[in-house]
Amino acid sequence: MNRIRLNLFLLLITSLLSIGTLAKSTETKEWTFLLFLNGHNNLSPFGDTNLKDMEKSGSTDQVNLVVEWAKADSDMTNRLLIQKSTDSTKVTSPILMSLKDHDMGDYKNFVDFVKWGVDNFPAKHYFVAVWNHGSGWHLQSSDQMRISDISYDDVTGNSISTEQLGLAMTEIKQYIGRNVDIYGSDACLMQMLEVVTEMKHSVDYVVGSEETEPGEGWPYENFMKKWTNAPQSTPAEVAVLLSKEYLSAYSGGTYGTIDVTFSALDLSKLDSVIESSAAIANFIKTLDAPSIAKVRKALRSVQSYFFSDYKDFGDLMKIFESLRINKDNNLFAKAQADVNSLVLTVDSSDEYKRSTGVSVWVPSYSSSYMSRYKGLEFDKQTGWSQILELLPE
């Protein structure tokens, strides 16, 4: 009996040492992917599927795949190093840390996870992503006082606002001492100027969708296989690869045929879009009543998304240009050129063929939360709300 207990004790110590080794890597690899997977809601089953898809490639000698994973049916949130597995029935990657009653709607916990990932899995490049529901910068229409932009936690009732997401990425940049290479939202409607401007000084590239995403989300199996097989890929190449694979997965690929759109943005080009937007806001506010009426009418034909007040920015500029309301014909053309420079790639099915890669808020109604909008960096830098206040009749 004593020998059996001794053997069991030694086995336990060996297992703990093995997990400790996995949790702390002193080797600096090419990439670390850090996924904040919030399954504290009805998307939870898709989280299991996505993780099993990631395990079909797993972490490699040059790419760490690291996940903080919350499930709807558990009060434990686990941090995993994704390892290759052939078991399609369950997630088999080792749990490196468990957190009880963890709030996935608290941006500070998101920051803590990324810092932990950076400490334990150092890399030359970091790709940080949030997995969950998303709604752009919007407030929930059913609860005007609740901000639910991304990472809804149905257990705590909390979520991460656009402003908090910006704070999180700024803090992460300060911690690693440089910009995050790629930020991504595996969530609906987040590819907005209002969202990405909050992280203009902390992130190099942003990937996401202007529209709602199907429940399956990103095509982790094919994307991870191609990425881990080409670990020397630049951040721009990785961002473009994901966008291309996303469209392929929903164009008769892994996830069937569903209308989608996805894009990758180069935030080093964002200042030009902000400057153009400011010039347009200043111009629109000088228009007479008949011209404003033309603008109101034209908005109905702009490419929009699940929320009809989310308008594709490039398409908006194209339609503004067609109105011939300005003497300076280069004003809207320049804005179109600037957004084309911002967008590395936009990959869309036919339903969204007019999407140019990034949306902007343009409501045709009087909004009860305009004051919050004026606190966003995009509006501070452009005065975009000057346009929005003219549009309601």
Descriptive tags:
393 residues, alpha/beta, Rossmann fold, 9-stranded mixed β-sheet, 14 helices, 39% helix
Account of the protein in words:
This protein has 393 residues and is of the alpha/beta class. The chain has two domains: 10-267, Rossmann fold; 270-388, no CATH class. Helices cover 39% and strands 21% of the residues. The chain contains 14 helices and 15 strands. The strands form four sheets. Strands 4-3-2-1-5-8-9-12-14 form a nine-stranded mixed sheet, with helices on both faces. A two-stranded antiparallel ribbon has the order 6-7. The longest helix is centred in the first third of the chain and has 22 residues, at 2-23. The protein is elongated and about 65 Å long. The model is unreliable at 6-22 (pLDDT under 50).
* Average residue-wise pLDDT: 91
Number of domains: 2
Q: Using DSSP, what is the number of strands?
A: 15
Strand line-up of the largest beta sheet: 4-3-2-1-5-8-9-12-14
> How would you sum up the major sheet?
9 strands, mixed
The CATH architecture category of the largest domain equals 3-Layer(aba) Sandwich
For this structure, what is the CATH class of the largest domain?
Answer: Alpha Beta
Give the helix tally: 14
Shape summary: elongated
- Computed structural class: alpha/beta
Report, as a whole number of angstroms, the end-to-end distance. Answer: 85 Å
CATH topology grouping of the largest domain = Rossmann fold
Rounded Rg: 22 Å
Percent range for β-strand residues = 15-25%
Q: Low-confidence spans: pLDDT under 50, at least 5 residues?
A: 6-22
Estimated helix fraction: 25-40%
